[in-house]
Task: inverse folding
């Protein structure tokens, strides 16, 4: 442990004293030993990275606009990329979006930080799912938000619970600042919020005058079923805004994302971004814009979907084949995205099983990491996008054998 002298401890802000290392990042260090099969990361499959095309694009950008691309740029982002994103969202989502609604950010993780910056004062209550994306929990916790949890089921966040929370806090004279959701193929659970619940969430936002933050990193990676309209597209009053990223569609190394919001909110987000990084990398924006301008994004997404659908199917089949029957083990079957969620019997603790799994050269993320209240002890997140098809089957087999062994030591199996 790095020791900070007491005299310096006294100088640290309350915010910095509350910062902790990412639990997932720390766990991933344990998965680096040779031979381990890891379902722990949320990584896209690197074999899909269009490296050949990018080599040509990078050279082209440097040759044609190198002096501009290597210079500082506007905080709002490259106008060409913004125009492309506005047109693309109108084409794919039917969204009424223009350049005043889009702010380019350094990955959607920065978007979460900016949201906390403009909305959260210490102690402010916000509603967040149980479980929910760990990066959002960390971002909002850093601003010392009072997170209030609403459980999920296989149709997404329980809207009746959200209504109860809003009613309770309003009665106490406290204002919920926003509701945070990942509507499509949620990280970590893989579940999708139904249309009925999306519409009800908006009704609650209007009734209680609460903002809704729609985090949509996986929306374009749908394998099965029909797309459900984005909440922001359904919103007619400007209460919802959405976060997007190229990290899952192209490559996370560029650290590019964007926020879609009404102009007034967008201006606040832009002002919050300026002292953070001045601007998102103009070079990376130029590269991604050129990739999109050439039509490569549209042709690239189907390749991702085809591979990830196959990997999901292999994982589901392996779970059905190897997990013990009649033990109460359950898992989600996501229609897209990168993850599924496995629930063990209450008698088992995924955190206690983790080091034993690593000994068997298989790893996952413990579900409690995605619960700000540290519940979910008997759950785990499994990623199917990154490991190979062979690794998925073998890794699930190893995990199932461990679970069978643990259950055999209880009265439940």
Result:
């Amino acid at each position: 442990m790095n020791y900070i002298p007491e005299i310096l401890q006294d100088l640290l802000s309350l915010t910095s004293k509350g910062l902790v290392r990412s639990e997932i990042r720390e766990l991933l260090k344990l998965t680096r030993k040779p031979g381990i099969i890891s379902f722990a990361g949320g990584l896209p499959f690197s074999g899909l990275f269009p490296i050949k095309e990018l080599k040509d694009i990078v050279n082209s950008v440097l040759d044609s606009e190198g002096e501009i691309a290597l210079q500082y740029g506007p905080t709002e982002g490259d106008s060409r990329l913004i125009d492309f994103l506005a047109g693309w969202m109108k084409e794919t989502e039917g969204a009424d979006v223009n350049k005043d609604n889009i702010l380019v950010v350094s990955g959607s993780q920065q978007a979460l930080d900016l949201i906390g910056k403009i909305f959260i004062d210490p102690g402010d209550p916000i509603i967040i799912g149980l479980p929910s994306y760990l990066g959002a929990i960390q971002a909002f916790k850093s601003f010392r938000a009072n997170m209030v949890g609403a459980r999920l089921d296989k149709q997404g966040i329980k809207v009746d619970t959200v209504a109860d929370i809003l009613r309770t806090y309003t009665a106490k004279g406290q204002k919920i600042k926003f509701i945070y959701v990942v509507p499509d193929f949620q990280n970590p659970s893989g579940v999708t919020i139904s249309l009925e619940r999306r519409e009800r969430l908006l009704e609650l936002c209007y009734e209680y005058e609460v903002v809704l933050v729609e985090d949509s990193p996986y929306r374009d990676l749908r394998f099965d079923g029909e797309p459900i309209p984005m909440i922001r597209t359904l919103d007619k009053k400007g209460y919802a805004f959405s976060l997007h990223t190229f990290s899952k569609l192209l490559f996370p190394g560029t650290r590019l994302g964007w926020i879609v919001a009404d102009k007034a909110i967008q201006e606040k987000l832009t002002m919050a971004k300026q002292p953070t990084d001045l601007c998102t990398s103009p070079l990376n924006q130029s590269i991604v814009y050129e990739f999109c301008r050439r039509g490569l994004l549209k042709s690239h997404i189907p390749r991702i979907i085809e591979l990830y659908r196959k990997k999901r199917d292999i994982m589901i089949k392996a779970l059905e084949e190897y997990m013990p029957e009649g033990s109460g083990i359950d898992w989600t079957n996501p229609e897209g995205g990168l993850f599924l969620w496995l629930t063990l019997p209450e008698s088992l603790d995924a955190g206690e099983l983790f080091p034993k799994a690593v000994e068997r050269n298989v790893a996952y993320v413990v579900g409690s990491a995605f619960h700000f209240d540290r519940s979910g002890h008997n759950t785990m997140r499994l990623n199917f996008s990154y490991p190979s098809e062979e690794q998925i089957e073998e890794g699930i087999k190893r995990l199932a054998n461990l679970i069978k062994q643990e259950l055999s030591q209880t009265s439940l199996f």
